Amino acid sequence: MFKNWGLKKQFATVFIVLITLPTLLFGCIIYFQTTNTFKQQVEDNTMDRIEVNEQTLQSIIYSIENISSFMIYDDNFRSFFTMSAEERKHADYSQIVKGIKGYFTFQLMSFDYIDSITLKAKDGDTLEFGNTILGTEKWLEEEAAAKKGAIHWSNSYSVSTSWSRVKNVSSLKRVINDINQINEPIGMVTIRLDSTKLFKMIEKKFNAQPGTYFVISNTGDVILHENPSLVGKPYPNREIVQFSNETRKRVIHYNEDGVTYLGVKKKIEGTDWYAAVVVNQSKVADGLYSIRSLFLLSFIVLIMLGIIAFIGFYFSNIKRITELTQQTRLLESQNFNARVQVSSQDEIGILGMRFNHLAISIQQYINREYKLKIKQKESELKALQSQIDPHFLYNTLDMIRWTARLENAMETGQLIERLSKNFRMNLSMGKMWVQIEEELMFVQNYLELQKSRMGRRLHYSIYYDDNVKGFYIIKQLLQPLVENSIQHGFKNLRGQGKIQIRCYQNDDEIWVDVIDNGDGFPRNLTENETGFALKNLTERLNLLFGRGFGMERLDSEIGTWIRLKIPKVIVDHEKNLGDVNDL
């Protein structure tokens, strides 16, 4: 049933069934899949974020701890921690301090989040590097001393600098023990990290991602946060504080003021800290709503574009096809004036041009065949009016040939046989076309008869390519040219007349050259002087093959050079040879 519909109905059905409905269906599926995938992606991204940040923070912690461990083994640090007040007056002390200063200067320049470093020797002497901190950190010293050389990380706290600035820092505080007497303390180190710079260092890869990253202690105090006012204070949401102390849970969903949040945490090894990320899932949903609105808008736009494309396709293609169908019906009803208006060079335009060319070719072919048939019938009628019964003449010649043989007049018999063959080929059962090989044989018989009459005054040669002998040619096409050479070209010739015939293939054409050494054609010959036969030959070729084919005269130093250009013709043997199937 679908095959019997018109193109407009088919295209509308295809547009609705295969474009509109699938677009709507797949759009809904994609929307729901996108919603779930987007939510899962947010959770996965949050987990990745906290993993990467935890690794970054852990790397920073390890590097700071390594700085403190280096002091246990380095001679300069050990010398500083163990020197007495008297020993510090010697020049060696200056070199020791210079070495320590160079080491810390490198660390401060390499890691901008290191705010300051304080070294305190056994006898109470101190060295300060970085920002100068005002006030004491006695509570921090007591916590570090209680760990007896183990690393102690403090929560964030506020300090004042000599520049009258207040900032939040987290500190590594550690007692440095003697390497030779591991339980003997020889000094203390404090390395302070700027909380704001440390946070930026950790979060620089994820600034654009949704959610808030922060670090809190096991007591709920904020260590790092994008809001400096929260640093060093208890985190305002107690659910997050409780969640941070639950060791097994890594993900939490909770509501606050009617808003759903996603929370993810991870323990920072070597400290009492937890890294956490909190994401507002309502904002994520807002993003999904925007996706849904975008999808709806995209669907409407696609439908509108589809309708515009349908209308454009109809006028640019379907309408032209229907017009071509209408003109084809006109041509089918034998109206050969049917034409299609061609407005483009696409496939339909090319099809229209070929249709127009076909209609013109059919019209020209009918006119040509009609004129050719009329001309052929006129020739046959004239032949019948001016000649005796051809079959009677052929049979009579055959009887004379056998009589000559019985009387041993062999040469006479051969001449009669050649004349009989020519006459028989001339009849050819009324056929219009003969093979090139037959036509050349006919011309050869004709030249042999003329040679019997003229003797040594005539010499001829015939050459042809083997691959052209099977193609067809109009019957008796060459005889008028040969006859013209003998009757007119050799008329005033002193000496032997020579005729050369060459037949060969040139691309998709067959060329036949007829060359003689006669007087040639004067350029001012009138139509009557060229002979009726040549005029008739030219008209036949023009009627049959059209432009580009026919007879042309080439320049020759001696005599005449005529060239016939004809297409390669194949004729169906089962049909009358007067009907050409392929040109």
Question: Gist?
Answer:
Residues 318-367 form the HAMP domain. The protein has helices spanning 7-73, 75-82, 91-110, 138-146, 195-203, 238-245, 281-332, 347-386, 390-406, 410-427, 436-454, 479-489, 532-545, and strands at residues 114-121, 126-130, 133-134, 152-153, 157-161, 166-177, 185-194, 212-217, 222-225, 251-256, 259-267, 273-280, 433-435, 458-464, 472-474, 497-506, 509-516, 550-554, 560-567.
Would you kindly provide a written description of the structure presented here, covering whatever features stand out?
- This protein is of the alpha+beta class and 583 residues long.
- Among the domains are: 55-191, Beta-Lactamase (2-Layer Sandwich); 199-284, Beta-Lactamase, CATH 3.30.450.20; 432-583, Heat Shock Protein 90, CATH 3.30.565.10.
- It is built from 13 helices and 19 strands.
- Strands 1, 2, 3, 4, 5, 6 and 7 form a seven-stranded antiparallel beta sheet that branches.
- Strand 16 (497-506) and strand 17 form a beta hairpin.
- The protein is elongated, with a radius of gyration of 56 Å.
Main CATH class of the domain at 432-583: Alpha Beta
Approximately how much helix is present in the residues? 40-55%
Determine the CATH superfamily of the domain at 432-583. Histidine kinase-like ATPase, C-terminal domain
* Gap from first CA to last CA: 41 Å
| Annotated CATH architecture of the domain at 432-583 | 2-Layer Sandwich
What value does the Rg take, in angstroms?
56 Å
| CATH T-level topology of the domain at 432-583 | Heat Shock Protein 90
Instruction: Enumerate the spans where pLDDT stays under 50 for 5 or more consecutive residues.
Output: 524-529, 573-583
> Overall pLDDT, averaged?
79
- Choose one word for the global shape: elongated
Main β sheet profile: 7 strands, antiparallel
State the assembly state of the protein chains: single chain
How many β-strand stretches?
Answer: 19
Strand content: 15-25%
Number of helices: 13
* Secondary-structure-derived class: alpha+beta
